[in-house]
Structures are given as C-alpha cells and as structure tokens.
Specification:
Length: about 160
Amino acid sequence: MTTKKKKKFPLVIIAIVTFAVAMAGGYLFQMALHGSEKTSDSSIVKVEPEDDGEKNNVDVSLKYAGYATLLSDEKIITLNFTNPSKSKKSLSLEIVADVDGENIVLAETDMIRPGYKIDSVKYTLDREIPKGDYKGKFIVHFYNEQDKEEIVNSEIAINVYIK
C-alpha cells in the first residue's frame, strides 16, 4: 500500500464508525422518545397528517375497516384502524368476537395517539377458535391527553374472520 492509501484508510474507517454510531444514537433517541407507541404486540405506525381544509371542531375522528382477521397459524390479528391527526384523543382498542354467544376478547392494543394507525396485533390467547366468520366489535377506549385517564368508550360493530 502506498503512503497516501494508508493515510486514507483510517479516515474511511473513522467515517464509517461515526456514521454507524450516529444512526444507532438516532434510533435509540427515537425509541426513548416514542417507545410506548410501538411494542412487539402491535404494529402502530405514524401516518401523514391530512389537510382537509376544514377547521377541526370535533374531539374524535376515526378511520377503520369494518373487520378484523385472525390468522390462526401466525397468531396475528390484522386490522385497519387509524386515529387521524385531526383527532384530539388517544385511544386503545379491544377486538372482540362473538363465538357461540360468548364475547371473546381476542386482543387489546397499545395506546394509539392522534396521527397513528394500527395494522396488526398479536393474538395471545391459548384458545383455539374454529375457523369461520363471526360478528364482533371494536371496543374503543378514549383517553384524556393530559393524564391518560380513560374518559369514555364506544363500540363499533365489525365482522371477525378466523382463518
């Protein structure tokens, strides 16, 4: 190796290490800042704010698909539920299926802040539910932003598909 290449090699290594440390630091900072928004049991992710051109005079705004699907083999419940950024309340969900007249809570989500959505949650019951289509509901728990105390809950009728 020439002297010039020997001098550049340590600089390249230092640059790579510095970049890796900066990326790791940024990741750790984001986890510390937003750690409670995503856990291993839920796929809660940030969504882009919507600009609908209207003033927001409501406390709650929700977007959701009217169903949830339990993928039995993967033990994952897929759903599509968004707490839009124009909403003023955080929320959590219970996903419930009516199986032979018994309301079974399939899963509970972590807190979903305004501007976040959830696509899946882990199914943690040790109970086998026969495959099929069931009536169900989302039980939506709304929380006060200041002290995170539950202020009200609501139920939304959905279909639950067990596959």
